[in-house]
UniProtKB/TrEMBL annotation:
Protein name: HEAT repeat domain-containing protein
Source species: Leptospira sarikeiensis
Taxonomic superkingdom: Bacteria
InterPro entries the record matches: ARM-like, ARM-type_fold
Start and end residues of each stretch annotated as Disordered: 31-68, 401-434
Length: 434
């Protein structure tokens, strides 16, 4: 017998034997068995995938940062941190050094912006050198810093910057001119800034004019306040606030009714002024909108922020005499108009009976603080006595649960009231009669 083909034949027979096996044939006829076999195969493959996913070797590796990039990032982070520390501690020596020698432009730009936020003259010369010696990115930041400070010593830089091809530098230059309050810069704002095709330059010019407090500029602010452009409207509101005059506060007060889209900004602007004109304007708005809880709450919170708590009065009778002394026949300071408001300082201890509208009314005289009537008056306010029947008194106070123990060294309110300050106050009208 030839055994050369025996071994290959056995292999061939064993490979086909499975198909002819009775056991395998029964399994093939059973569809459930076939399905199970297939599922087992899938499960095994899934397990293999899970195992491969759990294998740390198969996880994507983090990108390797080359040493140069890492050094740059570390230098940037450290530099910015040092700049912020220098700003917080007013370390001008550090900021000057970083602004002149730090290798990363973004850090030098951060120095320029920090010097502007600090707002002190010590940073002006540093910013001038940065403009003269550095590149575009840093020069933009340096101009913004100079605009924040707004010193007359920077006027030449602003004049040059207003003609720059860099838009950011032009905008910052017009913004900085207004803060200088220089008459020549005002002419540039009027003749160049307001006539610019760039809205941002127009806005910067409007805001800049607000610092001058020139009566003629009020007309310009009113024109932009009545324009159809909301951005210019908002700029005019801010400019009127910067004007800080009796007239500008009255315009903001009158605009509250019609300019619904600007109401929050008007209230914020009045609150920021911290003068009697603004406080009394808020009180008049409060009286005019006493039926709106939302408006009352908004204004009350702002009055509380100003520490303007206490008793306030509103005149309810026309031609109410404001007297120098609390008795009948005392010299008159002037007549008060309906709607005028003021702060109640004190109440006289002696009551009087006066004929009012054909009736005899018994009431007290109240000492009140009101705005002066004439624009050229030397002071904002004047004190006098008014009969209680002619006024309505409103109390602005802190809720009892919000009151805190008195602390030493607390600043008085703007109107010489010693009220605390924090949450929203409550307002409630009172009768003037005892």
């Amino acid at each position: 017998m030839n055994y050369r083909f025996l071994l290959p034949g056995l292999f061939l027979l064993s490979s086909f034997g499975v198909w002819f096996s009775p056991v395998f044939a029964q399994a093939a006829d059973d569809p459930g068995t076939s399905s199970d076999v297939g599922n087992n195969s899938t499960d095994n493959s899934d397990n293999n995938v899970e195992e491969s996913d759990e294998n740390p070797k198969n996880k994507p590796k983090k990108p390797v940062v080359d040493p140069e990039t890492k050094r740059y990032n570390d230098l940037l982070k450290t530099g910015l941190l040092k700049v912020f520390e220098g700003e917080a501690t007013f370390n001008y020596a550090r900021l000057e050094k970083f602004g002149a020698t730090h290798p990363i432009p973004r850090v030098r730009a951060a120095v320029a912006l920090a010097l502007g936020r600090m707002g002190r003259p010590a940073g002006i010369k540093i910013l001038h050198r940065m403009i003269e010696r550095d590149g575009e990115w840093v020069r933009q930041a340096a101009y913004k810093g100079l605009a924040d400070i707004g010193s007359k010593t920077s006027l030449e830089y602003f004049y040059v910057g207003a003609k720059s091809s860099d838009r950011e530098i032009r905008i910052a230059s017009f913004r900085g001119m207004g803060k200088t309050r220089d008459p020549g810069a005002r002419e540039v704002l009027l003749k160049k800034g307001l006539k610019s095709d760039d809205k941002e330059i127009v806005k910067a010019s409007i805001l800049g004019l607000g610092y001058y407090q020139v009566p003629e500029d009020i007309r310009t602010f009113i024109d932009y306040l009545n324009s159809n452009d909301e951005e210019l409207q908002k700029a005019s509101v801010e400019a009127l606030g910067r004007h800080k005059t009796r007239t500008s506060m009255k315009i903001l007060e009158d605009s509250f009714k019609d300019k619904v889209n600007l109401r929050n900004q008007i209230l914020d602007t009045l609150t920021e002024q911290k003068n009697s004109f603004a406080i009394f304007a808020l009180l008049r708005i409060l009286d005019a909108n006493s039926g709106s809880p939302d408006i009352v709450n908004e204004i009350s919170a702002r009055l509380y922020k100003l520490k303007a708590v206490g008793k306030y009065m509103t005149v309810i009778a026309d031609n109410t005499p404001l007297l120098k002394e609390p008795y009948v026949g005392a010299p008159k300071i002037r007549d008060l108009e309906v709607g005028e408001v003021g702060k109640v300082v004190t109440k006289n201890s002696v009551a009087y009976i006066l004929p009012v509208d054909g009736q005899r009314i018994e009431d007290f005289y109240f000492k009140v603080l009101v705005n002066t009537k004439y624009k050229d008056a030397f002071t904002e306010t004047v004190q006098g006595w008014v009969f209680g029947k002619y006024i309505q008194i409103r109390t602005i106070s802190i809720p009892k649960e919000e009151k805190e123990p008195k602390k030493k060294g607390k600043k008085p309110s703007i109107l010489d009231d010693m009220g605390p300050s924090e949450p929203e106050p409550s307002t409630q009208p009172e009768e003037s009669n005892p």
